[in-house]
Amino acid sequence: MTNTLGEEVKERRRRLGLDQQDLANLAGVSTSFVYFVEHHKKTVRLDKLENVLEALGLELVVKLRST
Fold this sequence. Notes:
It is a single chain. By secondary structure, the chain is mostly helical. The chain has a single domain, classed as Orthogonal Bundle (434 Repressor (Amino-terminal Domain)). The chain is built from four helices and no strands. Helix 2 (20-27) crosses helix 3 and helix 2 (20-27) packs across helix 4. The two termini are 20 Å apart.
């Protein structure tokens, strides 16, 4: 089963021993933004999401769906 983006962020953050505040500080975003990402808020700013992913050593990849 594939993790959602929020689950992946949360799992990676915990693996790195970071709390939400630590990650927010590293990414230059608010703690509430990290919370929203981890809890599947439907809309978030892409630039801030990229900062969070970068701080975790992750990247966002877009690919075509199989039809």
